[in-house]
Predict the structure.
Amino acid sequence: MRGGRWLASPVMWVGLLFAMLLLQMDALRPVLGWAFPDVTPLIYDRASFIELFLAHLGLVVTASTAAALVGLALAVFVTRPVGSEFRTMIKTLAAIGQTFPPVAVLAITVPLIGFGAWPTVIALFVYGLLPIIDNAVAGLDGVPSNVREAALGMGMSPRQRLFAVDLPLASPAILSGIRVSVTIAIGTATIGSTVGALTLGTPIFDGLVASKLPFVIEGAVLVALFAILTDMLFARLDQRLRYRVP
Amino acid sequence: MSSQAVPAPNRPALASRIGVRDQVLFALVLAAAVAALSLGFVAVAPNRLISGQPISLWSAADGKFAAGIVIVVGLLLAVSLSPPHRAMYCIAATLASMWLLLTFAALGNAVHTLAAGRPAVARISAGTSFWVIAGCAALAVMDALQRLRAGPMLITATLAALCGGTVLLALSGSFDQLSIAREYATRHALFASALIRHITLVTGSVGPALLIGFPLGLVAARRPRLQGPLFATLNLLQTVPSIALFGLLIVPLSALAAAVPRLASIGVGGIGPAPAIIALVLYALLPIVRNTTTGISGVDPAVIDAARGMGLTPRQIFCHIEFPLALPMLFVGLRIVTVQTIGLAVVAALIGAGGLGTFVFEGLGQYALDLVLLGALPAIGLSLAADFVLHVGSTLLVRARPE
């Protein structure tokens, strides 16, 4: 029963396709050779796709984890009495910051930090904070006041109320903030190749520069599958959380 | 029952225990002071390809600018310690605006002073502490306006005054020697065409996206069963990173252009504006469709029933009831889409679509960081301007609507 449901889930098929292409891009050689008879080499060969994927994943995980922790801490801070004064400022900052194009944020980090993986991580972190703060504040505000009062009436300390009541109830909203943040991070990290970070975007840019369309296709397909797969996994996690939270 | 019936055991923060009344303003002043003391206000480089050496505000600008900033910021510090009052917020808004303009003037002065004794190829750019100080000043203006509960008119007036002051400084030649201005001077014709191309890409994608997305959203609002698959598809499209979608569109479009030479002659091809506009339209669909559906289905059924009871035709109900009531939501969708498209159009430069991204990626390729900024800063400015105009527009629209 369980196995059957697993087999029918699109997550598994997308994941399988992604893993196969990541490890065995060579399988596409006949198709690419037919479509682009006069291009050699057909398969990107300056780095293995798995190496590019791991570097890409590393950037996204580092930046998004940091953004989730800091963003959540800020959201908790501004929704407690101690930090309530900073609330409007932080919310406005998050709203204005999100109008900045992610590429522009990436581009202006370079003059400040230099080329390489670091400006990408920093840009992803800063940009990733904003949707997390936005959603977490909304989620923490959305905790019904009667639930809060009940927790207070039970004699829970502020810390207990935060960890046992507020955060669990706000978790679906917090998760959707992290989901938006990670989706943007995957896309922006792709462009990070132009500032010297190694990602799945690297074949796309090398392909565009050298007019080698097969490279562009290989990179683009992998990046697209990576993003879609991640989003699907988040959708699953979201379902579980909502199921658990009444 | 009141929603905040229980008084929380309020433990005042450290700042308020030492007498700070406006913690936000206090924190901004503190952050600016730390930045001014520890980071470079301007950076001086021997030429445009080398990153600059930081120079502090005190040693770069004329003493009277630094003194002016210190006095204004000191007064703001005093404001942050005094009891809250409307008059205080007005004073804070004025002082913070002066702070921002003084910071710009100090930058102009510093750049002129430093450029005087240096060869023409030397480049002087704004340093990290300039951005932090100016950012804190801008936030202080915003904080004061928010505490004043300023309406759109007052906000627009303040913004106009600040922009006016900056434009006056620019016209008086303050920024002429700044590296980004020098970069602009050597390619102002290119800049104008890139800016126009950028705006064309944005309007050329948002327009068609509205024409496609609005009817789709209406259909989805009328037939809720369609919403699941429709939103799943659009969400999938939005998940795909922009550069991947651009890349994937190159292949079918170049095949199409090769097969139909007529299309190629009007500019359709794998590289250029065609794949960019198609991708931008696809990205723009989700927010437009979603907001149209939410807006139309959000109209109170009782209102529609009443209208039907009055004998209005479905067409009249749509034109006079549903559409006007859904309009604020549609405006929000338009704002999200416009801002998003301005950002994504930067990336479109990578597939030869032109626009401001050309400077960004050309600059990154040549390690000419002023050129990067010449593309990135106007793109940010464009997004902020679009966001602001559409925001004020929708606020006025909601107010003008009879209840």
About this structure: The two ends of chain A are 26 Å apart (CA to CA). Chain A has one domain: 49-244. Chain A touches chain B through 53 residues (CB under 8 Å).
